[in-house]
């Protein structure tokens, strides 16, 4: 579904991604793990072109999104993204946050968009917050709204960029539960995370990145019990 | 909910504008001094069509020309009557434009007006720029000084501070007085004020004006200077090589012969106004304003309309410029930066005057004063606002843009619906400041004759020959307007902060 060939990204002289080649299948849940500065987030942000790759190619269902002629906005409609800091629109209520893009981009009527939004709010357990402003929500609630907002566009792929890193510990679980149920529903997902337990339970594949390279690409069981590389072993030693 | 809120703001803005427009017919807009007088004469030009002539005058010089602020608000005076008579004899339609005295020659040269009658003497200096008719009135120079320190002769002025009206004949005459220290002021009422406050020892004006000055200010005394030459005669000014000079001269000499000119002169000089007598110990008498209040208050509408138009124009154009600045497209960025630099780096008054006087010459379009003013203020304010708005946009969290992009929201929608509403909240205080500044600086437009609050105050000052009362009154009006504006802004701010 996603084919990535020799992807590199440099910020000035700083080479962040040094040639990554991989394939993500439909319905596959990938957890991206690695030390900070290893290029996980940059890799994720290249997949919806929030960062423009320096070289290499990314194909999503046969569309070369790295081709400048591709209408990237259309591709992005099919790729949901959840950020570490939520980025809800602060001047809109929860329900307006969710209905905005479906109405403005996909042309849904207000009625269609609202009923869809209410469904999604029920799914993330926030039906009672529809008319609240984001400033009234806790971090965990904000992140669940952000997930609902992305899902409202009915994406084929979901990208999560450290979705629980900015949360207080007691709120991590409520967000992971939502992501977990999404993973179980068969959504193709890439998740940058530091939650090792979650990665081990929810992911189909672990990508271990270090120094801009995809060092390991294995099943969770194998990665957490018998890491192949010495760098992964050292990393796991530090975090577990 | 956000849409509803924005809609409320839009609606209230629209309602406000509609209200203003609806009220419009009750208040005359634009220049009070611009009204048409249809000529009654049957002696129309050969073409049979009535041609319109525009006359420039500085209506702050009774009895020659002044605004009848107590009555119709029209411009009246001896010059006006003479002009009406001549144009009607020649079969022209007459329109009068009220322009500051020192802008009259420029108005002739730029073709804004066809001729000027404004108690203007035909000096050699002026003859270099314009053509004059025969003289129609000769006035004497007169010294006005405080009764307590009277100055009667030219010799007594040596070493004294002497005030004159900038650009007037007396201004030229005063330059020839030996030892006098000259101070040139824009208006007759300024001279009175300076006399009263002791900043000048004497003012040199012409006889008719001196009579009115001393009538309404009992503490002032006047002394006529001997009429030395025919130089002081008043004549009608025309652009160089104007074809209508001869026609006008013909009617003038007719008028001199048949006594029509004398009749008009008598009509305006006969009434010796009885002193209103500010006999109170305090030299401030607000009761003089009584009859002028409706006239002054009409200026509120002009001032508000002007502020609204220039603020909206400035906001829209400033937003476009700020988008240029962050566009990443080099030529647009350079343009916006150069624009800001020029408009911030030159005085607003200069820009205003250039736009008003240069537009007819450069684009052959006779730009109305109110439009020139709105344009100048809008263009100027856009330069400042573009920086403010740019700052506001930059201050919006980068994540907002990324979230919008990730959702596939197109640029325009993202800017209008996501970024601007958040930027607006940050920059609202700065926007309010800009509006307050515009409202107050709008008083500058009086120099090109827009009849805003300040212009009307000037008219009343020249009518009553008293300044402090009028100035305090309009200052109070400006202050109240600013208070209303800021309280409106506070409400808006509270509404925008509802999401916190």
From TrEMBL, chain A:
Residues 2-236 form the ABC transporter domain. PROSITE patterns: ABC_TRANSPORTER_1, ABC_TRANSPORTER_2. Pfam families: ABC_tran. SMART domains: AAA. GO terms for molecular function: ABC-type amino acid transporter activity; ATP binding; ATP hydrolysis activity. InterPro entries: AAA+_ATPase (IPR003593), ABC_ATPase_HisP-typ (IPR030679), ABC_transporter-like_ATP-bd (IPR003439), ABC_transporter-like_CS (IPR017871), MetN_ABC_transporter-like (IPR050086), P-loop_NTPase (IPR027417). Keywords: ATP-binding, Nucleotide-binding, Transport. This is Polar amino acid transport system ATP-binding protein. It comes from Paenibacillus endophyticus.
From TrEMBL, chain B:
GO terms for cellular component: ATP-binding cassette (ABC) transporter complex. It is a multi-pass membrane protein. GO terms for molecular function: ligand-gated monoatomic ion channel activity. CDD domains: TM_PBP2. The keyword Transmembrane applies. Keywords: Amino-acid transport, Cell membrane, Membrane, Transmembrane, Transmembrane helix, Transport. The chain crosses the membrane at residues 300-324, 336-359, 470-489. One of its GO terms (biological process) is amino acid transport. It comes from the Bacteria. The keyword Transmembrane helix applies. Residues 300-489 form the ABC transmembrane type-1 domain. It is found in: Cell membrane. InterPro entries: AA_ABC_transptr_permease_3TM, ArtM/GltK/GlnP/TcyL/YhdX-like, Iontro_rcpt_C, MetI-like, MetI-like_sf, Solute-binding_3/MltF_N. Belongs to the binding-protein-dependent transport system permease family. HisMQ subfamily. This is Polar amino acid transport system substrate-binding protein.
């Amino acid at each position: 579904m996603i084919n990535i060939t020799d992807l590199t990204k440099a910020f000035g002289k700083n080479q962040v991604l040094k040639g990554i080649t991989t394939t993500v299948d439909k319905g596959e849940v990938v957890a991206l793990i690695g030390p900070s500065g290893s290029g996980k987030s940059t890799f994720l942000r290249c997949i919806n072109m929030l960062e423009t790759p320096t070289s290499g190619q990314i194909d999503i269902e046969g569309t070369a999104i790295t081709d400048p002629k591709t209408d990237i906005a259309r591709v992005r409609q099919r790729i949901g993204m959840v950020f570490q800091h939520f980025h809800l629109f602060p001047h809109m209520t929860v329900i307006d946050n969710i209905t905005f893009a479906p109405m403005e981009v996909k042309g849904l009527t207000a009625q269609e968009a609202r009923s869809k939004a209410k469904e999604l709010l029920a799914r993330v357990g926030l039906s009672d917050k529809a008319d609240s402003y984001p400033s009234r929500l806790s971090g965990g609630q904000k992140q669940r709204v952000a997930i609902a907002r992305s899902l409202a566009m009915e994406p084929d792929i979901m990208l999560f960029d450290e979705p629980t890193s900015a949360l207080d510990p007691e709120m991590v679980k409520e967000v992971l539960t939502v992501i977990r149920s999404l993973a179980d529903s068969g959504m193709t997902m890439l998740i940058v995370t530091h939650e090792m337990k979650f990665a081990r339970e929810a992911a189909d594949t672990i990508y271990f990145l270090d120094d801009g390279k995809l060092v390991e690409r294995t099943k969770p069981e194998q990665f957490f019990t018998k890491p192949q590389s010495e760098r992964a072993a050292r990393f796991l030693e530090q975090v577990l | 909910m956000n849409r509803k809120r924005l809609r409320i703001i839009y609606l209230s803005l629209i309602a406000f504008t509609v209200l203003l427009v609806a009220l419009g017919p009750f208040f005359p807009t634009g220049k009070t001094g611009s009204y048409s007088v249809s000529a009654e004469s049957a002696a129309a030009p050969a073409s049979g069509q009535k041609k319109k002539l525009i006359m420039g005058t500085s209506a702050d010089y009774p009895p020659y020309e002044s605004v009848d602020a107590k009555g119709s608000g029209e411009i009246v005076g001896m010059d006006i009557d003479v002009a009406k008579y001549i144009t009607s004899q020649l079969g022209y339609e007459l329109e009068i434009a009220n322009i500051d005295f020192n802008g009259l020659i420029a108005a002739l040269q730029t073709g804004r007006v066809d001729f000027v009658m404004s108690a203007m003497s035909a000096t050699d200096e002026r003859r270099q720029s314009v053509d004059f008719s025969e003289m129609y009135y000769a006035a004497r120079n007169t010294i006005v000084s405080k009764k307590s320190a009277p100055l009667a002769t030219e010799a007594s002025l040596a070493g004294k501070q002497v005030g004159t009206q900038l650009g007037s004949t007396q201004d030229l005459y005063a330059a020839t007085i030996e030892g006098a220290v000259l101070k040139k002021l824009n208006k007759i009422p300024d001279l009175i004020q300076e006399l009263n406050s002791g900043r000048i020892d004497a003012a040199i004006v012409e006889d008719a004006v001196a009579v009115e000055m001393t009538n309404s200010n009992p503490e002032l005394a006047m002394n006529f200077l001997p009429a030395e030459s025919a130089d002081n005669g008043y004549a009608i000014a025309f652009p160089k090589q104007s074809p209508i000079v001869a026609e006008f001269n013909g009617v003038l000499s007719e008028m001199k012969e048949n006594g029509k000119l004398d009749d008009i002169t008598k009509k305006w000089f006969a009434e010796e106004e009885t002193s209103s007598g500010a006999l109170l110990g305090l030299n401030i008498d607000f009761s003089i304003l009584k009859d002028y209040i409706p006239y002054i208050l009409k200026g509120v509408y002009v001032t508000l309309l002007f502020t609204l138009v220039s603020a909206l124009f400035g906001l829209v154009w400033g937003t476009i410029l700020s988008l240029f600045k962050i566009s990443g497209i080099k030529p647009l960025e350079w343009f916006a930066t150069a624009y800001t630099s020029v408009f911030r780096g030159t005085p607003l008054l200069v820009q205003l005057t250039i736009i008003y006087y240069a537009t007819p010459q450069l684009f052959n379009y006779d730009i109305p004063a109110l439009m020139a003013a709105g344009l100048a203020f809008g263009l100027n304010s856009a330069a400042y606002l573009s920086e403010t708005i740019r700052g506001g946009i930059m201050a919006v969290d980068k994540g907002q843009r990324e979230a919008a992009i990730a959702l596939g929201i197109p640029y325009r929608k993202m800017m209008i619906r996501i970024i601007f509403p958040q930027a607006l909240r940050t920059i609202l205080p700065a926007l309010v400041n800009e509006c307050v500044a515009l409202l107050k600086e709008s008083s500058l437009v009086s120099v090109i004759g827009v009849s805003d609050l300040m212009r009307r105050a000037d008219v009343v000052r020249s009518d009553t020959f008293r300044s402090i009362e009028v100035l305090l009154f309009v200052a109070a009006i400006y202050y109240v307007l600013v208070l209303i504006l800021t309280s409106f802004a506070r409400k808006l701010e509270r509404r925008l902060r509802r999401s916190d």
